[in-house]
Amino acid sequence: MNSSPLDAIQRTCRAKALGSRLGKSFFAITAIGPSMTQDRKTFVAWLQAAPMLLVFALFFLLPLLFVTIVSAWDYNEYEMIPAFSLRGYSDTFEGCIADLPNLCTILKTYLKTLKLCLLTWVLTLLIGFTVAYFLAFHVRSKTWQIVLTLLCTIPFWTSNVIRMIAWIPLLGRNGLVNRGLEGAGLIKQPLEWLLFSEFSVVLALVHLFTFFMVVPIFNSMIRIDKRLIEAAYDAGATGWQTLVNIIIPLAKPGIVIGSIFVITIVMGDFVTIGVMGGQQIASAGKIIEARLNALQFPAAAANAVILLGITILIISALTRVVDIRKEL
Amino acid sequence: MSKSSKSNRHVSRRTVLKGAAGAVGLAAGSGAITGFPYVHSADPKVLRYLGTAVNEGDEISKKCLEDTGIKIEYITATTDDVTKRVITQPNSFDVLDTEYFSLKKLVPSGNIFALDAKKIKEFDNITPVFTKGQLPNGKKIGEQGTAPWKVLYLEGANSKTFSKTPTEFVTLIPTVYNADTLGIRPDLIKRPISSWTELLNPEFKGKASILNIPSIGIMDAAMVVEASGQHKYTDKGNMTKAEIDLTMKIMTEAKKAGQFRAFWKDFNESVNLMASGETVIQSMWSPAVTKVRSMGIACTFQPLKEGYRSWASGFCVSKAVSGPKLDWAYEFVNWYLSGWAGAYLNRQGYYSAVLSTAKANMTADEWSYWMEGKAAVGDIKAPDGTILEKAGAKRDGGSYDDRMGAVACWNAVMDENDYMVRKWNEFIAA
């Protein structure tokens, strides 16, 4: 299938999360010791961070800079013209004022993308949290914890395309679910909304990305001091109170990191939404793909910059709710 | 050359000092770019062949190696990615297999070599569909869209302008083409279908589909709109903004009313939709219909009274190719037109550019089934030997003359392409 700059955006967004952690260790190191040793330590720290920094600068910052520059170029049928033009942006927001009170294409697309993103996020969070809770507190042996965590990776054992095409025999008009329901006499007509609908898109996204919630939340949970839970129990807290007052607050960093994974991936996704939505559901990524395929690189770059901006806004809002640097 | 290897060493030294593993990969990468040219004179004859998967058969490359000693290395990409690659990386391929409508983007980029018609042995035997826009029997065919004869010749060897009259400078040597129409499931529709309007017939609500490749999808949409009598286009392949608006408005209304089950973009998606019964009528490609049929499911490539939407592809050569490699490229193109490959393509339901040589490589029964629209005497087999049709079957749409003669328009790149793509996005978002 198509691989596109979107993948790069997703990767870099994930990398951003890592970057902020990296930044934190800088502060930790630089804060210690008097100035003489501090200089040396700073130098060592920079040296240690240098490989990552280099990779970052070359493969993230530089390409991003190019994308931003190109987004303000002009273009024709077959090439980019390095002359300043905001055509890529103005085309994108075409009709946003003229069509009022109707929504323009770009707003409709983003509302739809955000809606899918929100639904996926809520569901992966609920399922992911539950699974992580089970793994962390109900499975006692470390071996079983590892085995069961590995089991969560099963959805990744086949390729993206096969995984998604496999839904058709299950959810299709003549698929297993419809056949089963008809056989049980529950419905007379096959349910059309099972496939090529928002339902199927969210289902596939949740199926794919719950794992990205499970791992960071599980990681936070196993680091919770078990004595805290015992203390709560001794103090007469109910299971629910323990969950709300102890486990959830302490698992927050995991929740936020998982949320960042899921949100950045879903915001940029166009393959899953395309295949499961029967190509009839717009997504921010799809617009970029259509522009790229028409060789309108500056317009695609402009859309990528907009998508990046919106995703960064969401992520910074999230990190404002929970300061990951402080919590880790 | 020594300069480039020196700079490589420099990069390596620096990276070792910094101890960054990632940068070592970069040094290796830059070596590949600035290093030796890909082919040494002592190497065997190798051509890098960029194209879509549709025409890149293993049998073709095997047979070519056997006959000419030229080794074909396939580089596979989607139609859009092929175009992207030609424009951004002209050094990454030698021979290009692409469609005529892409030429409007490729030729102005200056990355395409004008081939010399005199060096193509069978050039004069290429079907007049390409050179004159008419059938071998003289019947004129539809010329809306980017019809091949409009973009076949250049004004000069280094010209970026298409010539209206034949010259010796050829952009794309035709190899394969076909006439596309709607595919239907006759077992589920249970009545004759004869017009493009049926795609938007509420009878098939939630069971229709169209391609989500804007430049092709809009042509199918235009066929529907014109068939329904709502508008008569001057040129479906080159719409005005108002015409694009009108076409998309009609399609958007249908989409909102739930007419379409899904859109498809990929060959296999179209096969899945049809085979599973999710759709019963949709835009389709000939080999996809064959594939559904080979699964034992009834599927017809339905001829329609308004005609077909046609496409054609061929070979061109990268401007970066020169010396002996250029000779091999000519040798390869000449081999391709010499008959074996043509017969191979005809047996898949496509058409070959030089009919006479292909005919010599097919049995009389195969020729009369595929090209003359007559009932098959024996079983009709695919190139790999599987049985496609039982004896007595007839090809959908009939003979070559019936099918190609009914072409209404060709796949196209419009002048208003940019506007069209925006409107298409709006349609998807609606």
If you compute it from the alpha carbons, what radius of gyration of chain B comes out, rounded to the nearest whole angstrom? 23 Å
Give the total of domains of chain A. Answer: 1
Largest sheet descriptor of chain B: 8 strands, mixed
Tally of helical runs of chain A: 15
Going by CATH, the architecture of the largest domain in chain B would be 3-Layer(aba) Sandwich
Which strands sit side by side, in order, in the main sheet of chain A? Answer: 1-2
Describe the structure.
The complex is a heterodimer of chains A (328) and B (430). Chain A has one domain: MetI-like fold (Orthogonal Bundle). Chain A contains 15 helices and two strands. Chain A has helices at 5-31, 35-70, 87-92, 105-138, 142-151, 160-165, 167-171, 176-183, 198-222, 226-234, 239-268, 271-276, 284-293, 297-321, 324-327; strands spanning 73-75, 80-84. Chain A has a two-stranded antiparallel sheet. In chain A, helix 10 runs antiparallel to helix 11. Chain B has 430 residues and is α/β, with parallel strands linked by helices. Chain B is built from 17 helices and 19 strands. Chain B has helices at residues 2-18, 21-34, 58-68, 79-88, 103-106, 128-131, 186-189, 214-227, 241-256, 267-275, 286-294, 324-337, 340-346, 355-360, 364-370, 400-405, 417-429, and strands at residues 46-51, 71-76, 95-99, 112-113, 115-116, 153-154, 162-163, 169-170, 173-180, 182-184, 208-211, 260-264, 281-283, 300-302, 308-318, 351-352, 380-381, 387-389, 407-410. In chain B, helix 3 links the parallel strand 1 and strand 2 (71-76). The model of chain B is unreliable at 1-41 (pLDDT under 50). The chains are: A mainly alpha (328), B alpha/beta (430). Chains A and B meet through helix 2, helix 4 and helix 13 of A and helix 2, helix 4, helix 5, strand 12 and helix 10 of B.
